[in-house]
Amino acid sequence: MKNMRGMTLLEVLTAVAVLGVLVTLAVTGMRGNISTQRENTATRELWSSALRARQLAISTNQPVRFVVDSNVTLPDGLQHTVARWERLKCGTDLNTPDEWTVDNCPNPACLATTCRSTPACCSETGPDIAIPATMNAANMHGLCFLPGSGRPAFNSMNCLQGLLSQPAQIAAAAPVDSSIQFRFTSKRAKSVLMVEPLTGLSSVMDCDSLAATTTDVSRKDVRLAAACLVP
């Protein structure tokens, strides 16, 4: 009968070290996949919410703006940075039905506050979209779709109150292609939410996509490529 030799201490330690490296690599890869999935989900939801906000601004004749808040406790019990749209009331009295006038749409009491702080300012709010820690969506804050037309105003928490009858002011407030960028601290390239200034329709594009990086002029999205170059 042959002698059975056990593993030496050095062999055991080597096996444990190799196993530890493999586990670490597996966990790191899993975390990276989860992070990417969360970034993708948040990006899609922000785009979908922008389309919904525009539709509501047209159909309800009320301004719909985006607000990004930090340290909001969600149903999971954790605090997140979140984005959502708010359909703002018009008129001078938040307790009465809408009284639409250019000077009072949105209601003057709602310009320096959000509907999270003052719920009475809103007829309706959208779902909270959790922004992953690896993602910056601050450019969404203050994006407003104007009542009736659905045209966009960038960085406009007041939704151009008092200026809705002035086409030049509305045109000047519209976002340009590079205005709304989603940046990531992960290895992912940034994305751009491109909002058409006349219609408010939006599309989200990735800066590492073929349309942005190709040298083939016939396949290149010139607007996207230019927007991606803006810091």
From TrEMBL:
Pfam families: N_methyl. PROSITE patterns: PROKAR_NTER_METHYL (PS00409). Transmembrane segments: none annotated. InterPro entries: N_methyl_site (IPR012902), Pilin-like (IPR045584). Coiled coil: none annotated. Gene3D superfamilies: Glycoprotein, Type 4 Pilin. This is Prepilin-type N-terminal cleavage/methylation domain-containing protein. It comes from Corallococcus carmarthensis.
